[in-house]
């Protein structure tokens, strides 16, 4: 019989410790590098945006209603509101639809349908943004126009296009979290006389809540950051939209539209818009993160 | 002595594999009936047929009848949802919902349409008392059911079943995941429950069957080999295989 | 353990936010390196630095790409800054070529402007529109929001969908200079804005009540309107009859020589002018 010290004190142990240590530091290093890159980007954006805040005033910049470059008037309230509306609109469509689809895929659809619908949804991810924009511009916008509400370029059109774009994110993450709900919950509910629908609604979805929230936060991040498709269907008017049929402009839309050949204060104002966007997304993500953590407790 | 459930020539198939072979069995009202037998003999399968949880497994087939109060539960006109409200089930692994203790128990009544806070509170309190859990949790009804110990969770699941006011309670190895003290509590509870309910318990713990049950059925390879008053099964088993199993000379 | 995971998650939040944003911003970020003039006389090799009008920039970039493809030993750096900056830079000698999308003012330093193309803008409507012509003043009023119905300019009774280019667009600069600006008006904020001639074309082609303006090269599939009774043709633009046209200039400090001369000649020659035409500009009249 060999003693335990024979095996725990093997010479190989030392080497393995070095190896473990190496990877530990490597991971720290990569973490640090990505953090530094991030910091540099943030610094750059802030540095370029700072003069605008200085010259215009933070409050005037954020609450200003007029964006008129020839007049050196830079107020982004219409864009803040435009971004908010479009994001909310997109989520109002994509969240119910996404959850419904995910439930359908996991708990309702027969295997056959599942094997058709799932790849179809995943395919949506690979389609370039511009294609969504074009389809929206050439099909969706004319339909809205024919309904008799303005030119068709609208918050509604943008919300629908965005909703389709974030749908795969929401479906796939929600689906994963629904699948992760233990079968015991389903059986528990059914054995109490729950109908299938009651089981899904009262037990499965609440149990999958944190995953669903994560999917919404990620979807929202994509919605806010998405630009190319957006500027093709929203009209980009610098006004506060007064209905879902009204055109509007988003924060990212302004950047994408005007950054290319901007100079001087205009350039700074665009970067200041980037700073606002940065803070916007940071708050959103932190919010989602906190919510996730709260729910996991 | 009233018969609550009559099982007649029951065969059950998972695809081509026959899991139950012509089972005949009368289960008595307000008694505890235990099902024992080696692993894989079909105890769970038989139990889950009694509230048609067996429906959840695709590609299965039932022959014969299960009559509850004379009604064949496999008839087309039978509504499973209502059936399951009358025939509750407790699982091997405690499976409280990720909700508060209160909401776990209130889940069934809510589904039945009770939304009045006071009425719900009353049902929850009664059910938890019947499940011998009230004293332990009455101060923390708003805590998650998942924070309880395994034994408490199992009693919470029993309370959850009681809250929908069933007539029959099916228990599939309810103590196999629990420590001896929790097991004892659940056993005491079962003795209590039989005053109001008909209880059927699957167990692989012979002592447990001997301690709590009034009737015991011994199953082997999908057959009900012997079924009798518990005392008889354990003292004078008629079948050689049953005797071997009980005396521990088997599997 | 949990604290490490915890903080890494936080970094993740920050990281994903920033990357998202950075992707948005960097996509539109033009390099702004400070040019240093080191002209090298002799055979075709060396570096040319150009700066100035952002309206000239896209055209100059394409011409430079073609030029350096032909003469691989030459490097051409094109940067922006605006027309005024272009004049200042060439006067100060910090670049080899300046660029301006307007005439040189009397108050500005003395530089030599060389026209490399004209930039003309056509007023376009949907092919279903019955209108054939408008006055510049009518167009200005439509874009300012003072005229909102086609019937007020002789068309059908329908609300006009006003479509414009984004702020900073060279095409828009021309339009503002010769149309809205000429009547001291501004493009209304609730017009629809798109960021390319192509997008304007798609929009106007699909909306029968839309009006837009595009560079001459993008009128296919659209109906162009006569402006003050002059049709927007290349000949009319070259002859100066068509009113919504401006010249794009390269600026030099003295009579160009060496690779600077070669580059300017290339731009003004058949190869450069073909690029100009392809991009929707009005080419010079070649002899
Ligand atoms: N879902 C299922 N699909 C196919 N076969 C099953 C399934 N569940 C159980 N079986 C089979 O049926 C037989 C009885 O199983 P079960 O009722 O779980 O036995 P016990 O509960 O007595 O251990 C076993 O042979 C088992 O492999
Ligand atoms: Mg079992």
Alpha carbon gap, first and last residue of chain A: 47 Å
The largest beta-sheet of chain A arranges its strands as 1-2
Bin the helical content of chain C: 25-40%
Query: Multimeric state of these chains?
Result: heterotrimer
Largest interface: A-C, 59 and 51 residues
Uncertain spans of chain A:
none
Structural class of chain C: alpha/beta
Report how far the terminal alpha carbons of chain C are from each other. 78 Å
Radius of gyration of chain A: 25 Å
Counted by DSSP, the helix tally of chain A is 13
Percent range for β-strand residues of chain A = under 5%
CATH class of chain A: Mainly Alpha
Order of helices and strands of chain C: HEHEHEEEHEHEHEEEHEHH
By CATH's scheme, which homologous superfamily of chain A applies?
Answer: MetI-like
Biggest β-sheet strands, sense, barrel of chain C: 9 strands, mixed
CATH architecture of the largest domain in chain C: 3-Layer(aba) Sandwich
Low-confidence stretches of chain C: 1-42
Total strands of chain A? 2
Descriptive notes:
- The complex is a heterotrimer of chains A (297), B (251) and C (287).
- With 297 residues, chain A is mainly α.
- Chain A has one domain: MetI-like (MetI-like fold, Orthogonal Bundle), CATH 1.10.3720.10.
- Chain A has helices at 4-8, 12-56, 58-63, 77-108, 111-126, 129-146, 155-179, 183-191, 196-207, 209-225, 228-233, 251-258, 264-296, and strands spanning 67-68, 73-74.
- The longest helix of chain A is centred in the N-terminal third of the chain and has 45 residues, at 12-56.
- The radius of gyration of chain A is 25 Å and the shape is flat.
- Chain B is an alpha/beta fold and 251 residues long.
- Chain B has ten helices and ten strands.
- In chain B, the strands form two sheets. In chain B, strands 6-7-8-3-9-10 form a six-stranded mixed beta sheet, with helices on both faces.
- In chain B, a hairpin with a 2-residue loop joins strand 4 (60-68) and strand 5 (71-72).
- In chain B, helix 3 (101-111) packs across helix 4 (117-130), helix 4 (117-130) crosses helix 6 and helix 6 (150-162) runs parallel beside helix 7 (180-193).
- The radius of gyration of chain B is 18 Å and the shape is globular.
- The model of chain B has no long low-confidence stretch (mean pLDDT 90).
- In chain C, the strands form two sheets. In chain C, strands 1, 2, 3, 4, 6, 7, 8, 9 and 11 form a nine-stranded mixed beta sheet that branches. Chain C has a two-stranded parallel sheet with strand order 5-10.
- In chain C, helix 2 packs across helix 9 and helix 8 (258-268) crosses helix 9.
- The N and C termini of chain C lie far apart (78 Å).
- Classes of the chains: A mainly alpha (297), B alpha/beta (251), C alpha/beta (287).
- At the A-C interface, helix 2, strand 1, helix 6, helix 10 and helix 12 of A face helix 1, strand 7 and helix 6 of C.
- The complex binds adenosine-5'-diphosphate (ADP) and magnesium ion (MG).
- Adenosine-5'-diphosphate is lined by residues 14, 19, 37, 39-45, 57 of chain B.
